[in-house]
């Protein structure tokens, strides 16, 4: 699950008996982010059938969303490669885990496998774009983002990632123009707001930033925050990303900067 916020802006910032009800319970727990309930559900399935590879993939994904990368790695590693190739989300989950560990070479290897077997093409292309941006391959990264845009769940996530890449290129004016419509639509999203403010300040549009702050706080506090932001930016030569590029979005825009998408 991941958006990539700018570090200096963080301050702003039970199973049923029937298959029918089991599906309903899983969906309910996903919506409410009941990770413990989902973990218990999938572990119970694995206890009944250790070769339930779908349950292994989903269990790994739940642990990953909950931030337990070690457990996510353990369960996804139990799946043989041949079985992984027929399970939706399996190679994508392996790629997401490698990406979160900043193991970009293995992440790209898993992405290539996912594309080769025709699984999760749009999600892995988005992730590939994020990795390429981090590695400075901006032109190729944008190509992957545009390809991912055709089928990605949240088009705004791709727009954020394109803007983040433009910021990394030093094209702050272009990034601000891309992000402003997203901000007007989703002003409470911390990733969009963080990326937009940095883009505006680095493209000499400080008055716009002041107006944004005044919409959320009184004048005295807005001035203090603005001065602090300006001081922080002046100390930085380049945009600062959290580890693993967390101003990008790998999933739907609901968490902090680039966006990856899980299944």
Automatic annotation (TrEMBL):
Disordered as annotated region, ranges: 240-263
PROSITE patterns: PROKAR_LIPOPROTEIN
Stretches with biased composition (Polar residues): 246-263
SUPFAM superfamilies in the cross-refs: TPR-like
Organism: Vibrio tapetis subsp. tapetis
Entry-linked Gene3D superfamilies: Tetratricopeptide repeat domain
Phylogenetic placement of the source organism: Bacteria, Pseudomonadati, Pseudomonadota, Gammaproteobacteria, Vibrionales
Keywords, ordered alphabetically: Signal
Signal sequence annotation: 1-17
The UniProt record lists the keyword Methyltransferase: no
Protein name, entry field: Uncharacterized protein
Keyword Ribonucleoprotein: no
InterPro entries: TPR-like_helical_dom_sf
């Amino acid at each position: 699950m991941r958006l990539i916020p700018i570090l200096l802006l963080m301050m702003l910032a039970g199973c049923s008996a029937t298959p029918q009800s089991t599906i309903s319970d899983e969906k309910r727990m996903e919506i409410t982010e009941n990770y413990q309930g989902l973990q218990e559900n999938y572990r119970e399935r694995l206890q009944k059938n250790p070769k339930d590879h779908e349950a292994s993939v989903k269990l790994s994904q739940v642990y990953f969303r909950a931030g337990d990368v070690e457990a996510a790695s353990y369960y996804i590693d139990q799946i043989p490669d041949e079985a992984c190739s027929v399970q939706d989300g399996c190679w994508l989950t392996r790629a997401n885990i490698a990406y979160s560990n900043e193991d970009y070479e293995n992440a790209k290897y898993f992405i290539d496998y996912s594309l080769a077997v025709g699984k999760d093409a749009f999600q892995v292309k988005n992730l590939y774009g994020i990795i390429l941006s981090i590695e400075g391959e901006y032109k190729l990264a944008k190509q992957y983002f545009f390809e991912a845009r055709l089928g990605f769940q949240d088009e705004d996530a791709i727009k954020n990632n394109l803007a983040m890449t433009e910021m990394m290129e030093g094209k702050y004016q272009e990034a601000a123009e891309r992000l402003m419509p997203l901000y007007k639509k989703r002003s409470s999203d911390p990733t969009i707001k963080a990326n937009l403010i940095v883009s505006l300040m680095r493209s000499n549009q400080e008055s716009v930033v002041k107006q944004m702050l005044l919409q959320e706080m009184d004048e005295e506090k807005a001035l203090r925050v603005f001065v602090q932001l300006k001081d922080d930016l002046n100390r930085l030569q380049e945009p600062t990303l959290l580890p693993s590029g967390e101003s990008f979005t790998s999933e739907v825009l609901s968490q902090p900067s680039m966006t990856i998408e899980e299944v």
